[in-house]
Amino acid sequence: MASEASAIAGRPPGGIPPGIEATEPILEKFREFGPNYRWLATLTTLLGSFATLLTATIINVAIPDIMGSLGMTESQAQWLATGFLATTTVTMLIAAWAVECFGIARTFVVAMLIFAAGSVAGGLAPTGETLIAARVIQGAGAGLMTPLAMLIVYQVFPVHRRGTAMGIYAVGIILAPALGPAFGGALVDQFSWRYVFFMAIPFVMASLPMAILFLPERDPQARRPDFDWTGVVLLSVFLVCLLIALSNGPGYGWGSPEVAWLAFGTVLSGIAFLYWEWYVKDPLMNLRLFLNARFLAAAVVTFVLGAGLFGSTYVLPLFLQSVQGLTPSDSGLMLVPAGLLMAVVFPIAGRLSDELAPRNLILTGLTIFALSTLLFRHVDANTPYATLILWVALGRIGLALIFPCLNAAALRPLPLHLLAQGSGAINFLRQLGGAFGVNLITIYLIHRTDVHAHELVLTQTAGNAQTILMTDLYMPRLYMTLGLSERMSELVSMGALQNMVIQQGSMLAYRDTFVAIAVVFLLCLIPAWFMDKRRPNQ
Q: Do the Cβ atoms of 507 and 383 come closer than 8 Å?
């Protein structure tokens, strides 16, 4: 890591603002560009964050069209989200090594070029397998880039304004996933699903020259750590085994030999990874970070937050399109007011986190998000569009209260030489939580749909007056008026009844899923309670 520089009091020569505590390459940029450098660096990293994270959720509203166009099953399409998140989690940890070996500027440029290559490949993909591979490439670039934004923004603001800094950083991290479905829906309806992959290219191209000019190079005096190849392999095996097991479990059966072997590989590689990272000289993830109780509590909350954020963002467009029958544009536009509201609340929440104890804001935000999700327990096909917008907006206010102080509280107890490791670990856990969230929510949704459909089928008996009326009177008459025979009318009526049962079971399953998300967030209040309750200036 670059050499440390102590906090600078007053205003020393060279244009470095008071209260800045940063590494030498960043201080050199302040001397070159003056106090306004913080905004130049922040804008550069936010462009990169917005480009890479926009694609994390923009694809969600396009999944039904992609499945139809490329002939992908629901399990295969799930990998468009989880493949991206899984690759991102690995490369987020590699980012700390890349910064120490090559500097922030070069790492940023390489990350954006990798991401752009994946975006172009995705837009031109002829098959589902090619598209999944493109998403993996996108995830590799996004994972390298994301920790850089937190690392830069945290250092270019004074110590007493780091909560505000994290509020600004969170705009790029959260606003892009929030607005992604809206942009994606419009592109799918007006053009094609392929255009969602090209959406981020202009942001990439704008960020590259700015990164070369404004982001710091490597400190030539810094030590170059060894690359932890063993850690990368073990972590990759762990994630691949885990995600394949979760994806194939519902189809093969959780007790099947295939899933059992995958579960064994997950546990074995996970234990091996933790053991190796504890003893290796230059670890991919410094496990000693978690010996700090405040960092550990923030890490647990971050994991759950990632699961809830990516999981809810994944499942909500599916509900709107499959149950309420909305178009991709309409389902995406529903998230726009909430995303804009977050952009307004983030800086306010960041400023509050500079004055108030982080624990209080995080507990409040978790409670608000849980209650907003709990409102969906009675949702159905007829729930008004405006009501859904209000519920989602309420939940996003809760997220906006959490993120700035959570990131600041996680990094505040760390020394400068551990900031890159800490930033990578926090972003890694958020993405890992997202990968878990998307997979587990999909599994739970499929399971609850089967349970409710089975229960509803059992009620369709000869003693059910509504069923008899539908199958023996209303539907046959309707189909006979269309020229069908009596026998064919009866068969079509039974098929229509079966479809109605499946739709009703799906709607009830979505209700259960929203309640499950709310319960997880309420349980997250427990680790959040153990976070630092002191004010930042204490």
A: no
Write the pLDDT tens digit of every residue in 275-318.
888 888 888 788 888 887 778 888 888 888 888 777 777 777 77
Residue 219 is encoded by which pair of tokens?
């400190």
- SS3 assignment, position 437: helix
Give me Rg for the CA atoms of the chain. Answer: 25
Angle between helices 419-459 and 486-523 (to 10 degrees): 140
What residues have CB less than 8 Å from 455, skipping those under 6 apart? 505
- Mean pLDDT across the chain: 76
Q: What is the CATH number of domain 24-228+280-450+509-529?
A: 1.20.1250.20
Pair 311, 440: CB distance under 8 Å: yes
Side-chain-side CA neighbours of 356 within 13 Å: the count stands at: 18
- Closest residue by Cα to residue 67 from 24, 108, 6, 128: 128
Mean pLDDT, residues 65-88 = 74
Q: Helices 37-58 and 24-33: crossing angle, nearest 10°? A: 120
What is d(CA 31, CA 9) in angstroms, rounded to the nearest whole number? 15
CA distance 269 to 150: 29
Least Cα distance to 49 among 137, 135, 141, 136 occurs for 141
Q: Do the beta carbons of residue 109 and residue 208 sit within 8 Å?
A: yes
The overall pTM is greater than 0.85: no
Distance, in Å, from the CA atom of 142 to the CA atom of 57, rounded to the nearest integer, reads 13
* Residue 331: count of CB within 10 angstroms of its CB: 25
- 478 alpha-carbon distance from chain centroid: 47
Instruction: Report domain extents, the chain.
Output: 24-228+280-450+509-529
Which of 226, 158, 220, 155 has the alpha carbon at shortest distance from 417? Answer: 155
With tokens 């752009």, the residue in question is 116
Tokens, residue 14:
């060279």
23, 5 contact by CB (below 8 A): yes
pLDDT tens for each residue of 324-375: 777 666 766 777 777 778 777 877 877 777 777 777 888 888 899 889 888 8
* 375-386 average pLDDT score: 81
* Eight-class DSSP state of 491: H
CB atoms within 10 A of CB 339: 21
CB atoms within 10 A of CB 25: 21
Report how far residue 95's alpha carbon sits from residue 49's, in angstroms, rounded to the nearest whole number: 14
Burial class (CB in 10 A: 0-12, 13-18, 19+), 190: exposed
The answer to whether 84 and 122 are in contact (CB under 8 A) is no
Task: Of 276, 291, 260, 283, give the one whose Cα is nearest residue 97.
Answer: 283
Any residues with CB less than 8 A from the CB of 215 and at least 6 apart, and which? Answer: 29, 41, 44, 45, 104, 105, 108, 148, 152
User: Dihedral, CA atoms, 141, 145, 147, 150, nearest 10 degrees?
Assistant: -160
Nearest to 23 by CA among 145, 160, 150, 156: 156
